Amino acid sequence: MSAGAERDAVIIGGGHNGLVCAAYLAAAGLRVTVLERRNLVGGAAVTEEFHPGFRNSVAAYTVSLLNPKVIRDLDLTRHGLHIVERRLANFLPLEDGRYLKIGAGRSAAEVAKFSARDAAALVPYAERLDAIADLLRELALETPPNVTAGNWLAALPDMLRGARLGRRLARLDMRMRRDLLSLFAKSAGDYLDTWFESAPIKAAYGFDGIVGNYASPYSAGSAYVLLHHVFGEVNGRKGVWGHAIGGMGAISRAIAAAATMRGVEIRVASPVREVLVQRGRAAGVVTERGETLKARCVVSNLNPKLLFGKLMDPAQLDPDFRERMRNWRCGSGTFRMNVALSELPDFRVLPGRAPAEHHTAGIIMAPSLAYMDRAYADARATGWSQRPIVEMLIPSTLDGGLAPPGRHVASLFCQHVAPELPDGASWDEHRDEVADLVIDLVNSHAPNFKAAVLGRQVMSPLDLERTFGLTGGDIFHGALSIDQLFSARPALGHADYRSPVKALYLCGSGTHPGGGVTGLPGHNAAREIIKDFKQRRWRRRV
Ligand SMILES: Cc1cc2nc3c(=O)[nH]c(=O)nc-3n(C[C@H](O)[C@H](O)[C@H](O)COP(=O)(O)OP(=O)(O)OC[C@H]3O[C@@H](n4cnc5c(N)ncnc54)[C@H](O)[C@@H]3O)c2cc1C
């Protein structure tokens, strides 16, 4: 797009949601420019070479939540997206020499090793959870009812949205309503305790309740986070997690190709310094280089705290909204490592270095909810735990293109380190100490692991913020707590992707339905922006 051309939308941030939003806007005929601060698009969904010859999904590392409608609408398969399933969903090596495998057709026999009662509960548990996840799947594609101030006429669209939601809830039978309430209000631990008695299955499921959630599995609200992680699907199979060939960057590249094909202009290495507001409405942006790009509307893919706290003049926002953003809770307590391996880990409980199904699984090294609770308490007290919570994935077992022949790459996704260290200590001084602990933990399960590490990339919460622009290192752009979800994401009155500043929209994970590589905030925001354009709120002056 030439410097003088009329631009309908400028999108700040080329994360996958910014790209999705851009593609939908362009498909509706809008002229769109995306400005991305890094020299590649995708945000947290990228594939990068982190050690010579070794590539990996360096932040987000596994796919399930990417919405099938987005995949279909943007024709992502034609743009190269190919998602494969793991051969086994999860593998939990335990300290007592046993292990648990979770996977289609296997789980019952595996869980029965620990409790026959738990094995019998697996199917009803999955059915009940999936029924609620179905409701979430529908709601995720919708704009939440907005809590509006003002007269009833202005509130009418949201009252209708609220009524539609009410009708949908009324269709649920009483047991499902009770489940829904439990999943929104309870802790993952309390919820799982009502279903199961043995520790390993509770750990396997409970892990989803603490991913990106810096809290004990017994903290109220963590059951919702568990639910958030099961509403996805892979190739039509609900609740399953898989691998995008080429890594998570392949998802972003496919979306970027779809957007470019529809006429979107994408500029990388283009950090935005400021949102331009003229006469109370967003009119464009100013880049770090000092270039001004005017547009009829501005769309932000950033964490709302970052947008309103750093890229806007506080005087443009009312004090109440500023306070909400100041108190927006960010800090998922995540520590992320990528390692290049000379060989596969040889687990004590399941020996063998030749590729096997458990090497393709999400390998959870946290044997019980009590272990996770302790890790959280340790992190609160001292910044991290000597016994960290680690999930390891070895994507090269499904995707040979990521590492040289015979070698492997592993993602280590570690939960529960303090977003900010106590007593003013800096992650710059401590990241390697924690990385060593993580390697030692894996090594305690697979004694050849430490010696197999050829190279490592270590990212503390501070590094996640520096590299990916994730405020507080928060992987979801803000905690998925009840006060930051649905009509309250990011603030009551602004859950419809419209910010308090006219012509300034939000399309990132800080909006409904929240974080994860879903494409949904981008999809939903585009729908609202297109609606406003159709209502000619911003009549073209051409
Ligand atoms: C370590 C980690 C592991 C995760 N694991 C998974 C997983 O396995 N599966 C899953 O589904 N989800 C996972 N997530 C969550 C998921 O990746 C994110 O919630 C999601 O990718 C966020 O997408 P987004 O487009 O909303 O925002 P982002 O990906 O954060 O994109 C925002 C973009 O804005 C850019 N930006 C920031 N400031 C500026 C500026 N001033 N000017 C221009 N551009 C700017 C950033 O560089 C970035 O590209 C993980 C996240 C992390 C960090």
How big is the Rg?
23 Å
Strand neighbour order, sheet with most strands: 7-6-17-18-19-16-20
The global form is globular
Q: Please bin the fraction of helical residues.
A: 25-40%
Provide the list of bound ligands, each named once. flavin-adenine dinucleotide
- The assigned structural class equals alpha/beta
- Annotation field: number of helices: 17
Low-confidence stretches: none
Q: Tell me, rounded to a whole number, the average pLDDT.
A: 95
Distance between the termini: 15 Å
How many β-strand stretches?
Answer: 21
How much strand?
A: 15-25%
Outline the biggest β-sheet. 7 strands, mixed
Structure, explained:
The chain has 542 residues and is an alpha/beta fold. Helix content is 36%, strand content 17%. β12 and β13 form a beta hairpin. α7 packs antiparallel against α8 (199-210). It is globular and about 65 Å long. Bound molecules: flavin-adenine dinucleotide. Flavin-adenine dinucleotide is lined by residues 12-18, 35-38, 43-45, 59-62, 65, 271-272, 301-302, 334, 336, 413, 464, 468-470, 475-477, 508-509, 515-517, 521.
Short description:
Helix 1 (16-27) packs parallel to helix 10, helix 1 (16-27) packs parallel to helix 17 (520-534) and helix 6 (174-185) packs across helix 9 (222-228). The protein is globular, with a radius of gyration of 23 Å. It has helices at residues 16-27, 68-73, 107-112, 116-140, 152-170, 174-185, 188-195, 199-210, 222-228, 248-261, 304-310, 319-326, 369-382, 427-445, 449-452, 461-468, 520-534; strands at residues 9-12, 32-35, 47-51, 54-57, 83-85, 90-93, 99-102, 233-234, 237-238, 242-244, 265-267, 272-278, 281-287, 292-294, 297-300, 334-341, 362-365, 389-393, 408-415, 453-459, 504-506.
